[in-house]
Task: inverse folding
């Protein structure tokens, strides 16, 4: 990492192709496995941008070598969770000087479970251009092959590490009326599947996509309960994307809950109304109770 802002120089010796790009932050997607999945536009940007920044400098350097893209005297600067606060002012300074800055995540699309979010946010806040060069994405690749509804989906990222936070996160996910997409570590996938069976239901259809576009790609499509059993004695390796069907139950929205409580509270005590509505709408009793308290408080104000 450079020690001073001026250390981020575009070139020491310009041996690149003649193509150049206007000042701005260019976010390029990189392959999640197969190196040939890189786009032609991404290769053009790698060849022409003044400053190259990557979550993993070794991965980007290797990708450029595979496709014959010369550094042309440029360096590749690291940008990740541990140095982002120090690097952002330096990259913003380069943009202020009219340079084109390229950022590449380690694999896939930048800003999707990736440290580039704060960089893009800072660049936008300073009034500079942010340009996307779309391409590979593990999330979308998994959705393509899962065989589950794709008209409405929700990317959930990685589950929290702490048990209490993870349970709350999954309870919230269970109420989302969309296909769910999770990233998970192979070391935690067995525990995660057991928790999903408990909270979302073992009958919920799912697809586990492992090592997408790589040599040992594997896709398992089955109910969560069967999947948990099938993988209980296996040690998995590689990147995992888990896609889960939205389920058959329709989740009541806020208006439906409010209407049901209004009708129930006209003839029942609060406790009985909460129990009845929670049962009718298949909602957690705590959620219905809190909504009922808020409704009663609103009447008295």
Result:
């Amino acid at each position: 990492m450079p020690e001073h802002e001026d250390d981020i120089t575009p070139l020491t010796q310009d041996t690149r192709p003649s193509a150049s790009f206007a000042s701005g932050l260019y976010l390029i997607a990189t392959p999640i496995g197969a190196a040939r999945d890189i786009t032609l536009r991404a290769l053009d940007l790698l060849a022409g941008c003044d400053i190259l920044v990557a979550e993993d400098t070794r991965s980007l350097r290797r990708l450029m070598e595979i496709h014959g893209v010369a550094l042309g005297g440029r360096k590749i600067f690291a940008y990740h969770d541990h140095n982002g606060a120090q690097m952002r002012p330096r990259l913003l300074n380069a943009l202020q000087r009219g340079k084109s800055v390229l950022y590449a995540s380690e694999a896939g699309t930048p800003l999707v479970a990736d440290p580039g979010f704060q960089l893009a946010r800072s660049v936008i806040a300073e009034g500079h251009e942010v340009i996307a060069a779309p391409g590979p994405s593990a999330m979308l690749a998994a959705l393509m092959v899962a065989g589950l509804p794709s008209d409405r989906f929700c990317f959930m990222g990685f589950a929290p590490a702490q048990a209490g936070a993870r349970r709350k996160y999954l309870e919230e996910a269970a109420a989302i009326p969309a296909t769910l997409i999770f990233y998970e570590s192979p070391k935690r996938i067995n525990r995660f599947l057991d928790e999903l069976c408990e909270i979302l239901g073992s009958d919920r259809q799912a697809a586990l996509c492992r090592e997408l576009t790589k040599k040992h790609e594997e896709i398992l499509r089955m109910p969560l309960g069967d999947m948990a059993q099938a993988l209980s004695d296996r040690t998995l390796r590689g990147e995992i994307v888990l896609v889960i069907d939205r389920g058959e139950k329709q989740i009541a929205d806020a208006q439906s809950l409010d209407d049901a409580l209004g009708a129930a509270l006209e003839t029942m005590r609060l406790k009985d109304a909460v129990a009845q509505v929670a049962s009718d709408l298949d909602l957690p009793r705590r959620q219905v109770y809190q909504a009922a308290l808020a409704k009663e408080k609103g009447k008295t104000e």
Summary: The longest helix spans residues 285-300. The chain has three domains: 5-136, 139-244, 254-300. The chain has eleven helices and ten strands.
